[in-house]
Each structure stands twice: as C-alpha cells, then as structure tokens.
Design goal:
Oligomer: single chain
Structural class: alpha/beta
Number of helices: 17
Largest sheet: 6 strands, parallel
Number of strands: 14
Helix content: 40-55%
Strand content: 15-25%
C-alpha cells in the first residue's frame, strides 16, 4: 500500500541531493498557469457575466447572481446542526485566542537625539478569502482565513466558495453558516481561478481586493501565481502533506491513523513516515490495511494517496538523521512521536506546523488547537510561514529627523550618494544647508 525508501548506511547527502530522494507529488503550477490565463482575462473583460458562464461550465449550475443574498447566510445558520455549531464556535474561540496574541504595536527607535524611526503596522484594506468546495466542505478554512484577517483589523473582508448545484447554486450551507458566525456577510458563489480573478480585477458586484488567501486546487494556485504583483497572496498551496518523525516509542496505530487522516483529502495528498525503527515501519504497514478498510473515501482518495509517489516510509539510522530528512522535506504538517519529543521538535527548522507527542495529532490543528491550518506545502516551509495576523499587516517606517539630526549625518549621506554615482541624492541634502555640507560634530 505504501512504498519504502531506505536511507540507512551511507551518510545522508546535503541540500538538493537529499530533497531529490524524498517523495513529492507532481504539481506543475506553471503548466496550469497557461490554462487559467484565458479564464482570468475573461473575468477581467466580462465580469459577473463570465463568472456566471464559468459556474455553468465547471459547476453545472446557472446562477442568477454571484453575490450570495444575506438571507441565505441567515437561513444557513438557522439550519445548522447544533453540535456542528458548537464545534465551530469553539474553533473560532480558540483561534481568536491564538491570533489576537499575534497583534503588533508600533515601536519607535531613537536613533540619535532628534532622529527617530517608528515602525507602525497597518492592515491591508480589503482581502478576498477562498474556501474550497470540491471533494469536501471546509468551514474550518473559513475560520482559519477570517479570524487572522479580523484580528489584524482588515476592514473589508469578502469570501468566495464554489457554487453547488445541490444547493441551488449557493456555496455549501455549512460554509455560509460559518460566515454568519464570523460576521462575514459579503460572500460570493465563485470557485477556482474565477474566484481569484474576481478578487484581483473586481467585477460588477465585487470590488477588487488587495490580497487573496486560502487553500485550493492547482487552478487556484495557478491563478494566484498569475496575479502575483497585482495582489498579495498567502501561498500557492499544493496537495496537503503530513510527515511523522517517529522512533520505537510511537504507537503504530496512532501513526497509521494520522497518515490516513491526510490521505483522505486527495489522491495527491502526501503521507510520509520517517523512522529509525524497522519494527515500527512494519507495524504501521500492518495497521494501515484494517484502518483503511474501515473508513470512507478508500478507493478514490486514500489508497491512491498512500500508494502514490508522494507517500513513503523512509528508514534512517537514527533520530538525528531523521531530523535532517524532515528538515529537507519541509512538511506542511510535522508530527514528532519520539522519546523526548519536545526537545526533538525544538531542533526542527523547516515545517509549517509541528505537533508534539501522541496527543497532538494533525487533526487537532485542523480544527481546534487554536493554530492556523493554512500552511506552506511542497517544501515551501523552508522559506514561508503559515497564515497569521502578520500575513494581513504591512510594516511602514516613519522617519522623523530634526535639522540638527540631519546635519549630524549629512556628510555620510552625501558621501554614499556620490559613491553610488547618484549626485542628486546628495544634492537633496545639500539644498537644506545652503548647498554646503555641514561638518560632522
């Protein structure tokens, strides 16, 4: 069901050589880019009319309007199962606790007497959030996108999710109910690249956004790449990933269950176990069969995901080598199930989120840990972070110098301007002092 990669014995290679040995899904955003380009440009030129046509083509439903009526949000919340509502409310509460603590305040540095630099943090004005609606429904993604934007102080928040023929062209009612709970009342029935284009360009009914965030399929990722520079994005999210670094103290039933939990997302989902214990590897393989057979989405998602080139059990000589492997892999979700897991986790450099020990499965982070589940994939954790309040803030430096403070450093400014062959830069300083550079004190 799942392949093995044996990296024991010889010293592990460094850098790209090690990364090339590790499993990864085929996810060619560049190839998809050329296919989304005409879609995005059609939305640019025809606005809502293009969105309606694409909804009929891709989602099998003819919309009367792209904007979801306010009453649909109210009705969705009224019809929400009480237990689901309670779970969503608790997820929101915990997410707010964590993300509220990420808020930044302005800080002033007194560089010299009379000269200061203040860094203030300003939220983007308007963001478009995306909640997928393909194989599953993701109200949790509504929470993970909306809460940090709200806690950052974003004034205008809109959300798009694909129209569903089953629900008369509206997004899934649980998505709408989550929006209602969060107070997000600007919602659009638009999916994939068309939703990103709607936010990037604006349409008859939807003003343009400064930024688009949220997970999605390859078409969403390609559209984000297409609009990079025009709008801000969080990340080009690829197929979901879990890596588990485990030794012989791990419970194989737990490890198998966690690998399956990510495999049920998508046939391209990655499930990777890195271990120095052949006995654990054998036991996990043995656990996979009955656990897979007992769950849902077996043949269309889980088995293809576990059997795909993106999933494997990786054998290493020890936890030290295992750390090198998981850092080279840079997993979206990394579980540490080893002896002294906290100390091991502290040494990890590259991961979207780290889950320590047997009682912090990835599923907890997906819904109710308080952490954010919009995380970098495809090895991007080596340079990118998950979604947070900081994602929606811009740091702006405010420079405040008196005449004396400028005079004290003027000769350095002029010297550097001339060294860069930019004499007008220096002249802008000289003009303030009668074209004579003040002598340094």
């Amino acid at each position: 069901m799942i392949s093995r990669i044996d990296l024991r014995g010889d010293a592990l290679p460094e850098g790209p050589a090690l990364r090339d040995l590790l499993p990864r899904a085929d996810f060619d955003v560049q190839a998809a880019l050329e296919k989304v380009r005409p879609i995005c440009e059609d939305v640019h030129h025809r606005g809502d009319a293009a969105l309606i046509d694409f909804a009929e083509r891709f989602d099998g439903v003819r919309l009367e309007s792209v904007r979801v009526p306010a009453q649909a949000l109210t009705d969705a919340l009224a019809g929400l199962d009480a237990d689901v509502r309670a779970a969503l409310e608790e997820s929101i509460r915990r997410a707010r606790l964590v993300h509220r603590a990420q808020r930044r305040t302005a800080h002033t540095t007194q560089v010299v007497p009379g000269g200061s630099v203040t860094e203030k943090w300003v939220p983007v004005e308007r963001v478009g959030l995306y909640a997928p609606g393909g194989r599953s429904v993701y109200p949790s993604s509504v929470i993970m996108n909306a809460v940090p934007a709200q806690e950052a102080g974003v004034e205008s928040i809109a959300l798009a999710s694909p129209p569903q023929a089953e629900f008369g062209g509206l997004p899934h009612p649980t998505i709408l109910a989550a929006c209602a709970l969060l107070g997000v009342d600007e919602v659009y029935a638009a999916g994939g690249a068309t939703a990103v284009a709607m936010f990037a360009y604006g349409t008859d009914s939807c003003p343009p956004a400064n930024m688009v965030t949220g997970p999605g399929n390859i078409w969403v990722a390609a559209a984000k790449r297409y609009f990079t520079g025009r709008i801000g994005i969080d990340t080009e999210a690829g197929p979901t990933e879990i890596a588990v670094l485990a030794d012989d103290t791990a419970d194989p039933a737990h490890v198998a269950a966690d690998l399956i939990s990510q495999a049920e997302h998508d046939p391209l989902a990655a499930a990777v176990l890195v271990t120095d214990s052949p006995d654990l590897a054998d036991a996990v393989e043995k656990e996979l069969e009955p656990q897979v057979a007992a769950t849902k989405h077996v043949d269309d998602r889980i088995r293809p995901a576990l059997a795909g080139r993106q999933s494997a059990i990786v054998l290493v000589d020890g936890v030290e080598e295992g750390l090198k492997v998981v850092d080279a892999y840079g997993a979206e979700h990394l579980e540490i199930q080893t002896a002294d897991a906290t100390a091991v986790a502290d040494r990890v450099r590259n991961a979207g989120a780290i889950f320590i020990g047997p009682w912090a499965p990835v599923s907890l982070g997906d819904y109710a840990a308080g952490s954010n589940h919009v995380l970098p994939t495809g090895g991007c954790a080596c340079h990118s972070s998950g979604l947070s309040v900081q994602s929606f803030l811009r740091g702006i430096h405010i420079v405040d110098y008196t005449k004396d403070a400028l005079a004290e450093v003027a000769h350095h400014v002029v010297t550097l301007a001339e060294a860069e062959d930019l004499p007008a830069h220096g002249a802008a300083v000289k003009a303030r002092f009668g074209w004579k550079v003040p002598e340094s004190k």
